[in-house]
Amino acid sequence: MSKIFLVVTILIVASSCAFRSVHRHKDITYTDSNANLPTKQLDVYAPKKADNLPVMVFFYGGSWESGEKKIYNFLGNRLARREVIVVVADYPLASEYTIPSMQEAALEAVNWTKDHIADFGGDTDRIFVSGHSAGGHLASLIAVKEAELAPSENGNKLAGSILIDAAGLDMYSYLQETGKGEGKKYLNAFTDDPAVWKEYSPMYFLTDDLSPMLILEGERTYPSIQGSRERFMKRVGEVGIEDVTVKIYPKKKHIPMITQFLWTPGRVYRDVLGFIEDN
């Protein structure tokens, strides 16, 4: 997971061409009213003359310690050209900040979207949360703790969540097993407190009123991601949740699960856009 930032940086060049049909509204501060968080910004990608379009709030990966919203031009531009408004948010990173601050910032970004996205042509009743890797973990936390979103005119309900090779769905079990070995590198974000590991592991907060969820995973992703997702889905079955769909991408590794968004005719766009259309 630590390679994501370095690898995806090269996509800035690949996505630097002009997309005349898309407006990118840059560096909008969304944390001003929260004294507990550093000042953070988000970008909004919207088609020209957007009118009541579905919205995706996206959080990038980088092992909870690296990443920048500007790298994800390719995702925002391409989805906006397909009639989805995209919000890409920066959030606090380790080791300066820990996972509680990251979740709080992610919630703030979604709250900002609920309150302001209509000004950009977005439908406040069709807001989806999404993310890759560590960002998928943050999106999943929002999905399972939806009641923590601030009230807004259209209520709390999300249209759904789209998790792209999401890490940390059961960080508690993973760190119990590896916190003194390979998992030690994540303690800057998750602390050395097992109570924190569990509090920020989405599988322990699943309820039968979960909004629709789509999980996209690479067949050759990290074993820790596969194992965490398997335990998550076992819990989904125990709770009796029906609207969680898992799609496995043959031969795909972790980083290609996000870089495949460079290729708009690919399967990932059919899956994501189909899920958005159905919800």
Automatic annotation (TrEMBL):
<dbReference type="InterPro" id="IPR050300">
    <property type="entry name" value="GDXG_lipolytic_enzyme"/>
</dbReference>
<keyword id="KW-0378">Hydrolase</keyword>
<dbReference type="GO" id="GO:0016787">
    <property type="term" value="F:hydrolase activity"/>
</dbReference>
<dbReference type="InterPro" id="IPR049492">
    <property type="entry name" value="BD-FAE-like_dom"/>
</dbReference>
<dbReference type="InterPro" id="IPR019826">
    <property type="entry name" value="Carboxylesterase_B_AS"/>
</dbReference>
<feature type="domain" description="BD-FAE-like">
    <location>
        <begin position="42"/>
        <end position="220"/>
    </location>
</feature>
<protein>
    <submittedName>
        <fullName>Acetyl esterase/lipase</fullName>
    </submittedName>
</protein>
<dbReference type="InterPro" id="IPR029058">
    <property type="entry name" value="AB_hydrolase_fold"/>
</dbReference>
<keyword id="KW-0732">Signal</keyword>
<feature type="signal peptide">
    <location>
        <begin position="1"/>
        <end position="20"/>
    </location>
</feature>
<dbReference type="Pfam" id="PF20434">
    <property type="entry name" value="BD-FAE"/>
</dbReference>
